[in-house]
Design a protein that fits this description.
It is built from four helices and 29 strands.
Protein backbone atom coordinates (compact mmCIF):
# COMPACT_ATOMS: atom_id res chain seq x y z
CA UNK A 1 0.00 0.00 0.00
CA UNK A 2 1.12 3.52 -0.66
CA UNK A 3 2.07 5.66 2.30
CA UNK A 4 0.29 8.81 3.29
CA UNK A 5 1.04 11.81 1.13
CA UNK A 6 2.68 13.62 4.05
CA UNK A 7 3.46 17.23 4.61
CA UNK A 8 5.82 17.35 7.67
CA UNK A 9 5.53 15.24 10.79
CA UNK A 10 6.79 16.98 13.91
CA UNK A 11 7.18 14.89 17.05
CA UNK A 12 7.62 16.30 20.52
CA UNK A 13 7.89 13.11 22.54
CA UNK A 14 5.19 10.90 23.99
CA UNK A 15 2.57 13.06 25.67
CA UNK A 16 0.23 11.21 28.01
CA UNK A 17 -3.17 12.60 27.08
CA UNK A 18 -6.54 10.97 26.74
CA UNK A 19 -7.31 10.23 23.11
CA UNK A 20 -10.61 8.85 21.99
CA UNK A 21 -13.59 9.62 19.78
CA UNK A 22 -15.74 12.06 21.70
CA UNK A 23 -18.93 10.61 20.21
CA UNK A 24 -18.44 7.21 21.87
CA UNK A 25 -20.53 5.67 24.61
CA UNK A 26 -19.55 6.84 28.12
CA UNK A 27 -19.40 3.16 29.09
CA UNK A 28 -16.48 2.44 26.74
CA UNK A 29 -12.99 2.11 28.16
CA UNK A 30 -10.91 5.16 27.20
CA UNK A 31 -7.57 5.22 25.44
CA UNK A 32 -4.74 6.88 27.40
CA UNK A 33 -2.17 8.32 25.03
CA UNK A 34 -2.00 8.58 21.26
CA UNK A 35 -4.30 6.24 19.31
CA UNK A 36 -2.33 3.68 17.30
CA UNK A 37 -4.92 2.70 14.70
CA UNK A 38 -8.05 3.84 12.96
CA UNK A 39 -10.37 1.02 11.86
CA UNK A 40 -12.35 2.01 8.76
CA UNK A 41 -15.49 0.01 7.89
CA UNK A 42 -15.45 0.12 4.09
CA UNK A 43 -17.99 -0.57 1.34
CA UNK A 44 -17.08 -3.10 -1.31
CA UNK A 45 -17.72 -1.64 -4.77
CA UNK A 46 -17.99 -3.49 -8.05
CA UNK A 47 -14.84 -3.00 -10.11
CA UNK A 48 -12.68 -1.86 -7.15
CA UNK A 49 -10.21 -4.34 -5.67
CA UNK A 50 -11.81 -7.55 -4.45
CA UNK A 51 -15.24 -5.83 -4.48
CA UNK A 52 -15.96 -6.89 -0.88
CA UNK A 53 -16.84 -4.98 2.28
CA UNK A 54 -13.80 -4.87 4.53
CA UNK A 55 -12.30 -3.58 7.76
CA UNK A 56 -9.27 -1.48 6.86
CA UNK A 57 -6.72 -0.79 9.60
CA UNK A 58 -4.59 2.35 9.28
CA UNK A 59 -1.55 3.10 11.45
CA UNK A 60 -1.89 6.65 12.82
CA UNK A 61 0.71 6.84 15.60
CA UNK A 62 3.56 9.12 14.44
CA UNK A 63 5.91 7.01 16.59
CA UNK A 64 5.30 3.96 14.41
CA UNK A 65 7.44 2.94 11.45
CA UNK A 66 4.19 2.22 9.61
CA UNK A 67 2.66 5.63 10.28
CA UNK A 68 0.22 6.55 7.54
CA UNK A 69 0.00 3.10 6.00
CA UNK A 70 -2.76 0.56 5.64
CA UNK A 71 -1.41 -2.24 7.83
CA UNK A 72 -4.23 -4.72 7.28
CA UNK A 73 -7.41 -5.19 5.28
CA UNK A 74 -9.91 -7.91 6.16
CA UNK A 75 -12.68 -8.68 3.66
CA UNK A 76 -15.94 -10.30 4.77
CA UNK A 77 -16.90 -12.16 1.61
CA UNK A 78 -19.49 -9.98 -0.08
CA UNK A 79 -21.19 -6.59 -0.28
CA UNK A 80 -23.67 -5.66 2.43
CA UNK A 81 -23.78 -1.83 2.26
CA UNK A 82 -21.18 -1.47 5.02
CA UNK A 83 -22.23 1.45 7.17
CA UNK A 84 -21.79 1.94 10.92
CA UNK A 85 -19.71 0.18 13.55
CA UNK A 86 -19.22 0.30 17.31
CA UNK A 87 -16.95 -1.07 20.02
CA UNK A 88 -17.99 -3.12 23.03
CA UNK A 89 -17.55 -1.49 26.44
CA UNK A 90 -14.26 -3.35 27.00
CA UNK A 91 -13.08 -2.48 23.45
CA UNK A 92 -12.27 -6.10 22.73
CA UNK A 93 -14.70 -6.42 19.83
CA UNK A 94 -15.87 -4.15 17.02
CA UNK A 95 -19.41 -4.69 15.72
CA UNK A 96 -19.87 -3.63 12.09
CA UNK A 97 -23.15 -3.82 10.19
CA UNK A 98 -24.43 -4.10 6.66
CA UNK A 99 -27.58 -2.09 5.98
CA UNK A 100 -28.74 -4.06 2.95
CA UNK A 101 -28.00 -7.60 4.15
CA UNK A 102 -28.73 -6.93 7.86
CA UNK A 103 -25.63 -8.96 8.70
CA UNK A 104 -23.47 -8.02 11.66
CA UNK A 105 -19.75 -8.78 11.61
CA UNK A 106 -18.00 -8.96 14.98
CA UNK A 107 -14.24 -8.36 14.75
CA UNK A 108 -11.66 -9.27 17.38
CA UNK A 109 -9.55 -6.10 17.72
CA UNK A 110 -7.77 -7.00 20.97
CA UNK A 111 -5.72 -10.11 20.19
CA UNK A 112 -3.67 -8.22 17.59
CA UNK A 113 -4.87 -4.60 17.30
CA UNK A 114 -2.95 -4.14 14.03
CA UNK A 115 -4.59 -7.15 12.39
CA UNK A 116 -8.20 -7.68 13.47
CA UNK A 117 -9.84 -11.03 12.76
CA UNK A 118 -13.47 -11.91 12.09
CA UNK A 119 -14.73 -13.43 15.34
CA UNK A 120 -18.41 -14.02 14.55
CA UNK A 121 -21.11 -13.20 12.00
CA UNK A 122 -24.75 -12.67 12.98
CA UNK A 123 -26.81 -13.52 9.88
CA UNK A 124 -30.24 -13.93 11.48
CA UNK A 125 -30.68 -10.40 12.85
CA UNK A 126 -34.07 -9.88 11.15
CA UNK A 127 -35.51 -13.15 12.43
CA UNK A 128 -34.14 -12.76 15.95
CA UNK A 129 -35.35 -9.18 16.29
CA UNK A 130 -38.85 -9.92 15.03
CA UNK A 131 -38.60 -7.95 11.81
CA UNK A 132 -36.07 -5.15 12.38
CA UNK A 133 -34.04 -4.49 9.22
CA UNK A 134 -30.84 -2.54 8.59
CA UNK A 135 -28.74 -2.59 11.78
CA UNK A 136 -27.32 0.92 12.06
CA UNK A 137 -25.72 2.26 15.25
CA UNK A 138 -23.97 -0.27 17.52
CA UNK A 139 -23.83 1.37 20.95
CA UNK A 140 -22.06 0.02 24.02
CA UNK A 141 -23.87 -0.53 27.29
CA UNK A 142 -22.35 -2.46 30.21
CA UNK A 143 -21.79 -5.96 28.83
CA UNK A 144 -24.25 -5.32 26.02
CA UNK A 145 -24.61 -3.79 22.58
CA UNK A 146 -27.72 -1.77 21.68
CA UNK A 147 -28.39 -1.61 17.94
CA UNK A 148 -30.71 0.83 16.22
CA UNK A 149 -32.61 -0.49 13.24
CA UNK A 150 -33.12 1.58 10.14
CA UNK A 151 -36.19 -0.19 8.79
CA UNK A 152 -38.54 -3.18 8.97
CA UNK A 153 -39.28 -6.28 6.88
CA UNK A 154 -42.91 -5.34 6.18
CA UNK A 155 -42.48 -2.37 3.86
CA UNK A 156 -38.76 -1.36 4.11
CA UNK A 157 -39.98 1.95 5.53
CA UNK A 158 -38.69 3.91 8.49
CA UNK A 159 -40.66 2.26 11.32
CA UNK A 160 -38.22 0.16 13.33
CA UNK A 161 -36.82 -0.73 16.76
CA UNK A 162 -33.86 -1.04 19.10
CA UNK A 163 -32.29 -4.48 19.35
CA UNK A 164 -30.25 -5.60 22.34
CA UNK A 165 -27.47 -8.22 22.39
CA UNK A 166 -24.85 -9.41 24.85
CA UNK A 167 -21.24 -8.64 24.01
CA UNK A 168 -20.95 -12.30 23.04
CA UNK A 169 -23.57 -11.83 20.32
CA UNK A 170 -26.55 -13.43 22.05
CA UNK A 171 -29.94 -11.83 21.35
CA UNK A 172 -31.73 -10.33 24.37
CA UNK A 173 -34.69 -8.18 23.32
CA UNK A 174 -36.30 -5.85 20.79
CA UNK A 175 -37.72 -2.47 21.82
CA UNK A 176 -39.97 -0.98 19.14
CA UNK A 177 -39.91 2.74 18.49
CA UNK A 178 -43.02 4.60 19.73
CA UNK A 179 -45.46 5.72 17.04
CA UNK A 180 -49.03 6.89 16.57
CA UNK A 181 -51.31 4.05 17.58
CA UNK A 182 -48.55 2.38 19.61
CA UNK A 183 -46.95 5.02 21.82
CA UNK A 184 -45.77 2.32 24.25
CA UNK A 185 -46.18 4.66 27.22
CA UNK A 186 -44.49 7.66 25.65
CA UNK A 187 -45.96 11.16 25.66
CA UNK A 188 -46.41 12.68 22.20
CA UNK A 189 -45.40 16.30 22.71
CA UNK A 190 -45.90 17.68 19.20
CA UNK A 191 -47.15 16.80 15.75
CA UNK A 192 -45.12 13.68 15.07
CA UNK A 193 -44.81 10.13 16.38
CA UNK A 194 -43.37 8.32 13.36
CA UNK A 195 -41.69 5.26 14.89
CA UNK A 196 -38.54 5.89 12.85
CA UNK A 197 -35.03 5.14 14.07
CA UNK A 198 -31.44 6.02 13.27
CA UNK A 199 -28.98 6.89 16.06
CA UNK A 200 -28.89 6.36 19.84
CA UNK A 201 -27.00 7.97 22.72
CA UNK A 202 -27.13 7.71 26.53
CA UNK A 203 -26.90 10.20 29.39
CA UNK A 204 -26.42 7.78 32.32
CA UNK A 205 -26.44 10.50 34.97
CA UNK A 206 -30.00 11.37 33.91
CA UNK A 207 -31.06 7.76 33.20
CA UNK A 208 -31.84 8.78 29.63
CA UNK A 209 -31.49 7.25 26.17
CA UNK A 210 -32.19 9.31 23.05
CA UNK A 211 -32.97 8.04 19.57
CA UNK A 212 -33.22 10.00 16.32
CA UNK A 213 -35.03 9.28 13.07
CA UNK A 214 -34.05 9.48 9.41
CA UNK A 215 -35.56 7.28 6.71
CA UNK A 216 -36.13 3.66 5.77
CA UNK A 217 -34.14 1.17 3.73
CA UNK A 218 -36.21 1.77 0.58
CA UNK A 219 -34.99 5.38 0.42
CA UNK A 220 -31.45 4.40 1.37
CA UNK A 221 -31.21 2.02 -1.57
CA UNK A 222 -32.61 4.50 -4.13
CA UNK A 223 -30.40 6.62 -6.36
CA UNK A 224 -30.16 10.09 -4.79
CA UNK A 225 -31.28 11.92 -7.93
CA UNK A 226 -34.34 9.69 -8.26
CA UNK A 227 -35.10 10.10 -4.57
CA UNK A 228 -34.98 13.89 -4.67
CA UNK A 229 -37.38 13.88 -7.65
CA UNK A 230 -39.90 11.60 -5.91
CA UNK A 231 -42.24 13.71 -3.79
CA UNK A 232 -43.79 10.69 -2.09
CA UNK A 233 -40.41 9.23 -1.13
CA UNK A 234 -39.24 12.62 0.17
CA UNK A 235 -42.22 12.58 2.50
CA UNK A 236 -40.94 9.39 4.11
CA UNK A 237 -38.36 10.95 6.40
CA UNK A 238 -38.45 11.07 10.17
CA UNK A 239 -39.20 14.16 12.25
CA UNK A 240 -38.62 13.04 15.82
CA UNK A 241 -36.21 12.44 18.67
CA UNK A 242 -37.47 10.03 21.32
CA UNK A 243 -36.40 10.19 24.96
CA UNK A 244 -36.23 6.81 26.72
CA UNK A 245 -35.72 5.52 30.25
CA UNK A 246 -32.19 4.09 30.05
CA UNK A 247 -32.63 1.32 32.60
CA UNK A 248 -36.04 0.02 31.56
CA UNK A 249 -35.64 0.77 27.81
CA UNK A 250 -39.13 2.29 27.84
CA UNK A 251 -39.90 5.38 25.72
CA UNK A 252 -40.89 8.42 27.78
CA UNK A 253 -41.43 11.32 25.40
CA UNK A 254 -41.45 12.03 21.65
CA UNK A 255 -40.06 15.40 20.59
CA UNK A 256 -40.62 17.12 17.26
CA UNK A 257 -37.38 17.66 15.31
CA UNK A 258 -38.63 18.21 11.75
CA UNK A 259 -36.28 17.69 8.82
CA UNK A 260 -34.80 14.20 9.37
CA UNK A 261 -32.53 14.29 12.44
CA UNK A 262 -29.37 12.20 12.15
CA UNK A 263 -26.49 11.78 14.60
CA UNK A 264 -26.96 12.58 18.30
CA UNK A 265 -24.05 13.88 20.38
CA UNK A 266 -24.45 14.49 24.10
CA UNK A 267 -22.51 16.84 26.37
CA UNK A 268 -19.88 15.35 28.69
CA UNK A 269 -19.95 17.87 31.57
CA UNK A 270 -21.64 16.61 34.71
CA UNK A 271 -24.00 19.61 34.78
CA UNK A 272 -24.59 19.78 31.02
CA UNK A 273 -27.83 17.92 30.48
CA UNK A 274 -28.28 18.34 26.74
CA UNK A 275 -27.51 16.78 23.38
CA UNK A 276 -27.25 18.04 19.80
CA UNK A 277 -28.54 16.69 16.53
CA UNK A 278 -28.65 18.06 12.98
CA UNK A 279 -31.38 17.79 10.36
CA UNK A 280 -30.46 16.45 6.93
CA UNK A 281 -33.25 18.09 4.91
CA UNK A 282 -33.37 21.51 6.57
CA UNK A 283 -29.66 21.95 7.49
CA UNK A 284 -30.24 22.97 11.10
CA UNK A 285 -28.71 22.32 14.52
CA UNK A 286 -31.21 21.27 17.19
CA UNK A 287 -30.73 21.13 20.94
CA UNK A 288 -32.39 18.46 23.07
CA UNK A 289 -32.28 19.75 26.63
CA UNK A 290 -33.61 19.13 30.13
CA UNK A 291 -35.57 21.70 32.09
CA UNK A 292 -37.46 21.09 35.32
CA UNK A 293 -36.98 17.30 34.96
CA UNK A 294 -38.54 17.30 31.50
CA UNK A 295 -37.06 17.22 28.00
CA UNK A 296 -37.55 19.65 25.12
CA UNK A 297 -36.28 20.28 21.58
CA UNK A 298 -35.31 23.61 20.03
CA UNK A 299 -33.74 24.72 16.76
CA UNK A 300 -30.65 26.73 17.75
CA UNK A 301 -28.75 27.41 14.49
CA UNK A 302 -28.70 27.14 10.72
CA UNK A 303 -25.77 25.23 9.25
CA UNK A 304 -25.93 26.29 5.60
CA UNK A 305 -28.39 27.18 2.83
CA UNK A 306 -30.85 24.27 2.90
CA UNK A 307 -32.00 24.98 -0.66
CA UNK A 308 -28.58 23.88 -1.91
CA UNK A 309 -28.97 20.50 -0.14
CA UNK A 310 -25.65 20.55 1.73
CA UNK A 311 -26.93 17.45 3.62
CA UNK A 312 -25.51 17.55 7.17
CA UNK A 313 -24.14 14.15 8.13
CA UNK A 314 -21.71 13.35 10.96
CA UNK A 315 -21.07 15.65 13.92
CA UNK A 316 -18.53 15.57 16.75
CA UNK A 317 -18.71 17.37 20.10
CA UNK A 318 -15.49 18.34 21.87
CA UNK A 319 -14.68 16.83 25.25
CA UNK A 320 -15.01 20.22 26.97
CA UNK A 321 -18.47 20.83 25.44
CA UNK A 322 -17.23 24.06 23.83
CA UNK A 323 -17.17 23.08 20.15
CA UNK A 324 -19.18 21.09 17.63
CA UNK A 325 -17.84 19.89 14.27
CA UNK A 326 -20.54 19.52 11.62
CA UNK A 327 -19.92 17.82 8.25
CA UNK A 328 -22.04 18.54 5.19
CA UNK A 329 -21.68 15.77 2.65
CA UNK A 330 -22.77 17.39 -0.60
CA UNK A 331 -20.39 20.38 -0.46
CA UNK A 332 -17.56 18.42 1.19
CA UNK A 333 -17.27 20.91 4.04
CA UNK A 334 -16.66 20.64 7.77
CA UNK A 335 -17.81 23.53 9.98
CA UNK A 336 -16.76 24.36 13.51
CA UNK A 337 -19.37 25.88 15.83
CA UNK A 338 -18.77 27.49 19.21
CA UNK A 339 -21.35 25.88 21.52
CA UNK A 340 -20.20 27.46 24.80
CA UNK A 341 -23.79 28.71 24.89
CA UNK A 342 -25.65 25.63 23.62
CA UNK A 343 -28.73 27.73 22.85
CA UNK A 344 -26.78 30.01 20.49
CA UNK A 345 -24.11 28.15 18.48
CA UNK A 346 -21.77 30.46 16.57
CA UNK A 347 -20.00 29.50 13.34
CA UNK A 348 -16.23 29.80 13.81
CA UNK A 349 -14.76 28.29 10.63
CA UNK A 350 -15.45 26.37 7.42
CA UNK A 351 -12.99 24.00 5.75
CA UNK A 352 -13.50 22.08 2.53
CA UNK A 353 -12.30 18.51 3.06
CA UNK A 354 -13.04 16.99 -0.35
CA UNK A 355 -15.60 16.61 -3.13
CA UNK A 356 -17.80 14.99 -0.48
CA UNK A 357 -17.33 14.27 3.22
CA UNK A 358 -19.21 12.07 5.66
CA UNK A 359 -17.65 10.90 8.92
CA UNK A 360 -15.46 12.77 11.41
CA UNK A 361 -13.68 11.26 14.43
CA UNK A 362 -12.03 13.59 16.92
CA UNK A 363 -9.37 12.76 19.51
CA UNK A 364 -10.32 13.44 23.10
CA UNK A 365 -7.71 16.20 23.40
CA UNK A 366 -9.09 17.85 20.25
CA UNK A 367 -5.70 17.88 18.52
CA UNK A 368 -6.44 15.37 15.76
CA UNK A 369 -9.39 14.83 13.44
CA UNK A 370 -9.92 12.08 10.90
CA UNK A 371 -12.33 12.25 7.96
CA UNK A 372 -13.84 9.72 5.57
CA UNK A 373 -15.97 10.33 2.52
CA UNK A 374 -18.61 7.69 1.77
CA UNK A 375 -22.28 8.14 2.66
CA UNK A 376 -24.06 5.38 0.71
CA UNK A 377 -23.16 3.56 -2.49
CA UNK A 378 -26.36 4.75 -4.19
CA UNK A 379 -25.84 8.36 -3.04
CA UNK A 380 -22.08 8.81 -3.36
CA UNK A 381 -20.73 10.96 -6.17
CA UNK A 382 -19.04 9.13 -9.01
CA UNK A 383 -16.29 10.15 -11.40
CA UNK A 384 -16.07 12.52 -13.19
CA UNK A 385 -17.93 14.49 -10.49
CA UNK A 386 -14.54 15.67 -9.23
CA UNK A 387 -11.38 14.61 -7.48
CA UNK A 388 -11.06 13.61 -3.86
CA UNK A 389 -14.11 11.36 -3.97
CA UNK A 390 -13.22 8.48 -1.63
CA UNK A 391 -10.53 8.99 0.96
CA UNK A 392 -9.26 8.81 4.53
CA UNK A 393 -7.68 12.06 5.74
CA UNK A 394 -5.91 13.15 8.88
CA UNK A 395 -5.73 16.71 10.19
CA UNK A 396 -4.14 18.34 13.19
CA UNK A 397 -6.15 21.11 14.84
CA UNK A 398 -3.69 23.88 15.68
CA UNK A 399 -4.26 27.56 16.49
CA UNK A 400 -7.92 27.26 15.53
CA UNK A 401 -7.17 25.81 12.10
CA UNK A 402 -7.25 22.38 10.49
CA UNK A 403 -3.83 21.47 9.13
CA UNK A 404 -3.91 18.65 6.60
CA UNK A 405 -1.33 15.94 7.29
CA UNK A 406 -2.14 13.29 4.74
CA UNK A 407 -4.55 11.36 2.55
CA UNK A 408 -5.14 7.77 1.49
CA UNK A 409 -7.08 7.51 -1.78
CA UNK A 410 -9.29 4.45 -1.23
CA UNK A 411 -10.14 4.10 -4.93
CA UNK A 412 -6.52 4.23 -6.05
CA UNK A 413 -5.62 1.69 -3.38
CA UNK A 414 -8.40 -0.67 -4.50
CA UNK A 415 -10.08 -0.64 -1.09
CA UNK A 416 -13.61 0.60 -1.85
CA UNK A 417 -15.60 3.42 -0.25
CA UNK A 418 -14.55 4.31 3.34
CA UNK A 419 -17.33 4.91 5.85
CA UNK A 420 -17.16 4.87 9.64
CA UNK A 421 -14.03 5.01 11.83
CA UNK A 422 -13.14 3.69 15.26
CA UNK A 423 -9.85 3.96 17.19
CA UNK A 424 -7.54 1.24 18.48
CA UNK A 425 -4.48 1.24 20.74
CA UNK A 426 -1.90 -1.30 21.93
CA UNK A 427 -1.94 0.06 25.49
CA UNK A 428 -5.54 -1.05 26.00
CA UNK A 429 -4.42 -4.66 26.01
CA UNK A 430 -1.14 -4.40 27.88
CA UNK A 431 0.97 -4.13 24.73
CA UNK A 432 3.79 -1.67 24.10
CA UNK A 433 3.56 0.95 21.39
CA UNK A 434 6.35 1.12 18.79
CA UNK A 435 9.57 2.98 19.56
CA UNK A 436 9.44 6.63 18.42
CA UNK A 437 11.26 7.76 15.33
CA UNK A 438 13.63 10.72 15.30
CA UNK A 439 12.11 14.14 15.82
CA UNK A 440 10.99 15.89 12.66
CA UNK A 441 11.43 12.68 10.66
CA UNK A 442 9.67 12.88 7.32
CA UNK A 443 7.82 9.86 5.97
CA UNK A 444 9.03 8.44 2.68
Amino acid sequence: MKRFIFIIIAMFGCQQVIADETCMSPYIQKIVGQEDFVYVWTLGIEGIGDEQDKLVTISVNPASQTYGQVVSSLSVGGRNEAHHSGLTDDRRFLWASGLESSKIFIFDVHTDPARPTLHKTIDNFVAQSGGVVGPHTSYALPGRILITGLSNNRDSGGETGLVEYTNAGEYIATHWMPKDGALRGAVKSGQFADGYGYDVRALPRRNILMTSSFTGLKNYMTDLGELLADAQAMGNFGNTVAVWDLHSRKPKKILDVPGAPLEIRCAWGTQNNYCFTTTALTSEIWLIYEKDNDWFSKKVADISDASKMPLPVDISISADDQSLWVNTWNDGTTRLFDISDPFEPKLKSETRIGEQVNMVSQSWDGKRLYYTSSLLEMWDKKAPAGEDLQYFKIYNFEDGKLNHKGTIDFIAEGLGYPHQMRFGAYALYGMQTPEPKNMFAQAQ
